[in-house]
Design a protein that fits this description.
The complex is a heterodimer of chains A (about 300) and B (about 200).
Chain A: E1 11-16, H1 24-37, E2 42-46, H2 54-57, H3 67-71, E3 83-84, E4 90-94, H4 96-100, H5 107-119, E5 124-128, H6 135-143, E6 146-151, H7 155-176, H8 180-189, H9 201-211, H10 213-225, E7 229-235, H11 238-254, E8 260-266, H12 269-277, H13 281-284, H14 289-302, H15 304-307
Helix pairs in contact in A: 1-14, 6-7, 7-8, 7-10, 8-9, 9-10
Chain B: H1 13-17, H2 25-38, H3 52-69, H4 72-82, H5 102-106, H6 124-134, H7 138-145, H8 149-157, H9 166-179, H10 184-200
Helix pairs in contact in B: 2-3, 9-10
The chains are: A alpha/beta (about 300), B mainly alpha (about 200).
Chain lengths: ~300, ~200
């Protein structure tokens, strides 16, 4: 198995939420390239069930090897299914969707996969989760070092992002508490029409406190340390850019969490052009406005040790 | 209880507007306009998140926080009765020295954003109100912008017959807006629209 050289510095980022078409794969591919240009080893993992096509964003053909080959033991080590790309320091792994979305994927199996991924030789590992909302996807999002939501300034995208965030939030809380009644309470809280009258996280915490003070404390700690990141894609005006700050305020008021507004990517015709040509934007047209936005975000991720974007 | 999980009715007015307890009137004005836009019923950023009841509660809290914090005497009373009780809670944690969330100050690309005030229409008297709340005198604006105090007064009073030709008026309005940290374009558009309506009558 590949030996990690400096385990301490390795970062696994997951990119998810929103909905199909919000630009997760585009952003994953281009941030990955920016990071690789900084001289760090980057591995991109495609776990998008609906449309695994990260390879297309990188301009390579559908890979012959995938994670399934590792899971079905056709190869012994995970690093054997890594696909090299034309870009130095950048490798691709596809097929994670098979496991992440399989109904019978056990938590043990997911953890094992995560551990294998952690042992890969790379400094930055970016996982494109696609628009999925399944428990496995949520778990992967929560188990990573940092989760990034990609949103466009449209009601559909924002609605799905809040849906994803609520699911991830309650999932994280369920995992943190020990008492069974509290777990049941949290699961029930997901449904707004629940009989307990729990409308939001604030109601939930009050209800939990009346059952189990310990778990209420644990929940508060989880809330305090849950810091998802947000990228606003396809912004067309200053007003659009402001939406990111507003989403941050809204999350603070609703969940009590601190969402980090990582940056925005402007709407740019050059993006469509580059995708059609199957040439990554940051290589094809590094001076375009969208490429500059992506580069800036990648620089922030590269410095994330200093500015704490982790969960 | 941790600061983060406070219900809206348990938050201080400073937390509600996301400003530091030593925020200036200008900062409070700015934060209020942003909060008002964020939690406006039609705001895209909160789409599908809050129920109607939750929205009403937040909107009421924002107005109340603004009303109290912009009134010097009320704010003083409020500070005395509320802030001391919360000394141990490190309310300023997420904020930088000037009351701006730290992360925002660090991200280069966000630095020069103008504030969008949504539904506020800048009539003369609105401008005057904002200016007075922020505590800036006309002579300060005049010194900053080199616009004569008389003209600034005419702008605030909407003395139509005295106002300069449109092209100059626009420039003056921009200068006025900038010295109050308002979005110049919105001030110009709103003001011109409102005087056009007055003229019709």
């Amino acid at each position: 198995m590949g030996q990690a050289q400096n385990d301490n510095q390795k970062m696994i980022w997951t990119i998810g939420g929103g909905k199909g078409g919000s630009g997760k794969s585009f952003i994953t591919a281009n941030i990955g390239i920016c990071l690789s240009k900084l001289g760090v080893r980057v591995i991109l993992i495609d776990a998008d069930l609906g449309g695994a096509n990260l390879h297309t964003f990188l301009g390579i053909s559908p890979p012959a090897l995938s994670l399934s080959d590792y899971i079905k033991k056709r190869v012994s080590y995970l690093h054997e299914v890594l696909i090299p790309t034309a870009i130095p320091n950048l490798q691709l792994l596809t097929g994670a969707q098979d496991l992440l979305n399989a109904a019978d994927a056990k938590s043990v199996q997911k953890r094992r996969l995560l551990r294998s991924i952690q042992r890969l030789e790379g400094d930055y590992i970016l996982v494109d989760l696609g628009g999925g909302n399944s428990l496995s996807v949520l778990d992967f999002f929560l188990m990573s070092d940092g989760g990034i939501l990609v949103v466009t300034p449209e009601p559909t995208s924002i609605e799905n992002t809040y849906r994803f965030l609520k699911s991830a939030f309650y999932r994280r809380l369920t995992q943190s508490v020990s008492s069974h009644p509290v777990k049941t309470l949290i699961d029930g809280a997901m449904d707004r029409k629940n009989e307990m009258g729990i409308q939001n996280p604030h109601d939930l915490i009050r209800a939990v406190r009346s059952i189990n003070e310990e778990d209420a404390k644990r929940i508060e700690e989880e809330v305090e340390t849950f810091h998802p990141n947000l990228i606003l894609n396809q912004v067309r005006s200053k007003k659009d850019i402001e939406i990111g700050f507003s989403i941050r305020s809204a999350c603070q008021k609703y969940f009590g969490i601190h969402l980090h507004y990582l940056g925005y990517v402007v709407y740019d015709q050059e993006v469509c052009q580059s995708i059609r040509k199957r040439k990554p934007l940051v290589l094809e047209n590094a001076r375009s406005r969208a490429a500059q936005c992506v580069t800036e975000i990648a620089a922030k991720l590269a410095n994330s040790h200093q500015i704490s974007l982790r969960f | 209880m941790m600061v983060n999980m406070k219900r809206i009715e348990e938050q201080t007015y400073y937390e509600i507007l996301e400003v530091s307890p030593n925020a200036t009137a200008k900062e409070i004005q700015r934060a209020y306009e942003r909060a008002k836009e964020t939690f406006h019923t039609d705001s895209l950023a909160i789409y599908s998140l809050f129920s109607e009841g939750e929205m009403n509660q937040i909107q009421t809290a924002i107005e109340e926080a603004y009303r109290v914090l912009m009134d010097e005497a009320l704010r003083k009373d409020y500070d005395q009765s509320h802030l001391r009780n919360h000394v141990g809670e490190k309310k300023e944690k997420p904020l930088g020295p000037q009351g701006i969330p730290r992360e925002k100050r660090d991200s280069l690309s966000f630095r020069d954003l103008a504030i969008n005030t949504g539904e506020v229409i800048y009539r003369g008297k609105t401008l005057k109100q904002i200016r007075e709340r922020v505590g800036i005198e006309l002579k300060t604006i005049s010194a900053e912008t080199k616009i004569s105090i008389k003209i600034l007064e005419w702008i605030e009073e909407e003395t139509l017959e005295k106002l300069p030709p449109l092209v100059y008026l626009k420039g003056f309005l921009r200068g006025y807006a900038q010295s109050l940290d308002l979005d110049p374009q919105k001030v110009v558009d709103g003001y011109l629209q409102s005087i056009a309506e007055t003229k019709k009558k």
